[in-house]
């Protein structure tokens, strides 16, 4: 089906279905890139909340050099439609961010399926497989997951996941569209609940919770282990390159020969916690400890300001890596 879909670089409008945390964040990024947003969200006050979110997100997008205008031009760049179908009809591509509920998503996609099949449907789902999303679609070939990370307007990564029914050219299209948005897309080749990055993330969160419950260290120290022990290197390189360098001159082969047995012992989960009432209570207490009496909004504002600095630094380091052209 060559030429069936409008080229990613020519997209000028997106239907954003669901404008909660992620949908509003995507909307801010689309508008910053000069892509008009036609949104739909049935919640009371959704439009006002989306505008407020985009307004707050704008300075960070300016600092990253993505947004050029001093303020978002809501008049020409954002409108709300009365239904998902209406929004989808008015835009060139469809982008879905409703609650993470498979039944709801399947029914919303079934509704969107009625819209011209040459419009690609991107889903933000954090873990539902594309095969599940496509259950009630007559045109499953244009459905693909483009999973962002919170906050979606800032974090560079998106995971692109297709199913056997997704047309390969739609997966390629999503990769191209993500790049156009300044994202770093990765292609996830095997469908699985949680895709790839949440699988990595929650393996670590599982261990953090187990350490907390087992009293291995305080909540603050468990977070410090990640923040100061692992995260600085991880902004530069992933786990596999990190392991290679841990082997010194011998690299990966060296570390596997010398430390392979220990690694196998270290990566075996000691215990897998369940979210029992007691564990939940301990986690809520731990959150209180690490948040040091400051509210979520205050932390989010600080995080987003610092993320801009880190992402700018990460962008600068691109192109300077050994092996870069
Ligand atoms: N929050 C995150 O960190 C994060 C990160 C990446 C991906 N995601 C994914 O993004 C999606 C949205 O998550 P969120 O955190 O924005 O949730 P949210 O609860 O903030 O927002 C969901 C929105 O969907 C709206 N909605 C419900 N039914 C709808 C319908 N029929 N049509 C249109 N809108 C409808 C709700 O009114 C709400 O505003 C989920 O699939 C989630 O897995 C979330």
User: Which descriptor suits the 3D outline?
Assistant: globular
Bound molecules: nicotinamide-adenine-dinucleotide
- How much helix is in the residues? 40-55%
* Major β-sheet strand ordering: 3-2-1-4-5-6-7-8
> If you average the pLDDT, what whole number results?
96
Overall radius of gyration? 21 Å
Low-confidence stretches: none
Going by helix content, strand content and strand pairing, the class is alpha/beta
Total helical elements: 13
Listing every helix as H and every strand as E from the N terminus to the C terminus, the arrangement reads EHEHHEHEHEHEEHEHHHHHH
Main β-sheet: number of strands, strand sense, barrel status? Answer: 8 strands, mixed
Can you tag this structure with a few keywords?
single chain, eight-stranded mixed sheet, 325 residues, alpha/beta, globular, binds nicotinamide-adenine-dinucleotide, 13 helices
Explain what you see:
The structure is a single chain. This protein is of the alpha/beta class and 325 residues long. Helices cover 50% and strands 11% of the residues. It has 13 helices and 8 strands. The protein has helices at 21-32, 46-63, 74-77, 84-90, 102-112, 130-133, 168-180, 197-213, 219-234, 239-246, 251-266, 277-291, 296-317, and strands at residues 13-17, 36-40, 78-80, 93-96, 121-123, 143-147, 157-161, 184-188. Helix 1 crosses helix 2 and helix 10 crosses helix 11 (251-266). It is globular and about 60 Å long. The chain binds nicotinamide-adenine-dinucleotide. Nicotinamide-adenine-dinucleotide (NAD) binds at residues 17-23, 40-43, 46, 84, 97-100, 104, 108, 124-126, 147-150.
């Amino acid at each position: 089906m060559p030429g069936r879909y409008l080229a990613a670089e020519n997209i000028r409008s997106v239907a954003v279905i669901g404008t909660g945390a992620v949908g509003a964040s995507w909307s801010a990024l689309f508008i910053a890139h000069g892509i008009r947003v036609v949104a739909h969200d049935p919640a009371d006050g959704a439009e006002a909340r989306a505008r407020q979110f985009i307004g707050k997100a704008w300075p960070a997008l300016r600092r990253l050099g993505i947004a050029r205008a001093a303020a978002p031009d809501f008049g020409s760049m954002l409108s709300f439609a009365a239904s998902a179908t209406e929004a989808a009809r008015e835009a060139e591509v469809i982008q879905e961010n409703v609650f993470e509920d498979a039944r709801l998503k399947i029914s919303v996609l079934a509704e969107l399926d009625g819209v011209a099949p040459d419009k690609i449907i991107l889903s933000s789902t954090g873990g539902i497989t594309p095969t599940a999303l496509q259950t009630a679609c007559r045109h499953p070939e244009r459905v693909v997951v483009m999973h962002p990370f919170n906050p979606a307007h800032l974090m560079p990564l998106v995971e692109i996941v297709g199913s056997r029914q997704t047309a390969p050219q739609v997966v390629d299209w999503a990769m191209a569209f993500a790049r156009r948005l300044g994202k770093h897309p990765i292609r996830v080749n095997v469908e699985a609940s949680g895709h790839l990055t949440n699988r990595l993330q929650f393996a670590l969160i599982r261990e953090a919770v187990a350490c907390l419950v087992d009293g291995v260290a305080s909540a603050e120290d468990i977070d410090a282990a990640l923040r100061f022990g692992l995260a600085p290197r991880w902004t530069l390189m992933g786990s596999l390159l990190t392991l290679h360098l841990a082997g010194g001159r011998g690299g990966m082969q060296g570390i596997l020969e010398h430390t392979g047995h220990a690694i196998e012992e270290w990566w075996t989960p000691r215990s897998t916690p369940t979210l029992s009432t007691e564990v939940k209570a301990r986690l809520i207490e731990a959150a209180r400890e690490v948040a040091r009496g400051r509210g979520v909004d205050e932390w989010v504002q600080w995080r987003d300001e610092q993320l801009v600095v880190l992402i700018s630094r990460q962008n600068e380091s691109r192109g300077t890596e050994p092996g870069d052209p």
